[in-house]
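It would be a great kindness if you could assist me with a short task in structural biology. The matter concerns a single protein, recorded as an amino acid sequence and a row of C-alpha cells. The record follows directly beneath this note:
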Amino acid sequence: MTAGTALVTGASSGIGLELARLFAHDGYDLILVARSVEKLDRLGAELSARHGIRARTVGADLGSPDAPGAIAETLKQAAVGIDVLVNNAGYGVHGPFAKTELQTELDLLRVNVVALTHLTKLLLPTMLARRAGRILNVASTAGFQPGPLMAVYSASKAYVLSFSEALAEELAGTGVTVTTLCPGPVLTGFQARAGINGARLAAGNPLLVDAATAARAGYEGLMRGKRLVVPGLGNKLLVQSERLAPRRLVTKIARLFQERARP
C-alpha cells in the first residue's frame, strides 16, 4: 500500500524536485509535471528505484491554456486519483515594467496564476467527494508587498497567497486542507531565469535558503494542515514588519533589494 499519490508541478528542479523526493521517501506515488520530460524521467526512475514507489511523468508547458485540462485528462485515462496537489511551477521576470517583454509576463501569469487556479479547480472536486486531500500552493514572501522591478511576479504571488488563504477557509471542515508556502529568496535556477543574479535580493542576501530547506518546511506544514508556512526566522520577522510598516516605505525598501548590487 502506498501513502497515496501526489502531483507535483515544476518537479524537474528546485523546490519541486526536493518536494518530490520528500513524498517518495514517505511512500507516495508521484505524478511529476514539468516541461523537461528528460529530467522528469531521470528523476522518476531514481525515486522509483530508491523508494519502491511508482512515478509517472507528464511533460507539460503550463504556459499553455490547454495544459491543465490535458493533465487532468491524462489522469482520468490512467484512472489515477490525486491525494496531494502541489502547485509549485512558477518563475519571475526582473526589470522595469515599461521595458520587460509583454509575452514573457503574460506567460508568467498563465503559469503562476492561471494554471495553478485551473488545476486546483479540476482536481478539488474528487478530493471533496472523498472528504480527504491536501493542496500545497507555492507563493513567496514577495506576495506580502509590492515588488518594484519585479512588479508582475510579486503581484502573481500576492494572488496565490490571497487565493490560497481564502480557499483554505472555504474548505474548513471538509477534510481537504490548503497550505501556502511562502519562502524568501531560495538558491535555485529561479534567479538566473528571472535575471536577478546581480540584484541585492540574490547577492549575499542573509535570508537566502537552499531549496531542500524550503521544501522541508513546506512539506511538514502541509502534513500538519497548516495554512501558511514562511521558512526561516528572518523571513517571518520580515513578513511581520512589512505588515506594520507604511506601505510606501515597504515598497521603497523592496525596490532597493531588487536593484543591482554595485561591484
Remarks:
- The chain has one domain: 4-258.
- The chain is about 50% helix and 15% strand.
- Strands lie at 4-9, 28-34, 55-59, 84-87, 133-138, 176-181, 186-187, 209-210, 228-229.
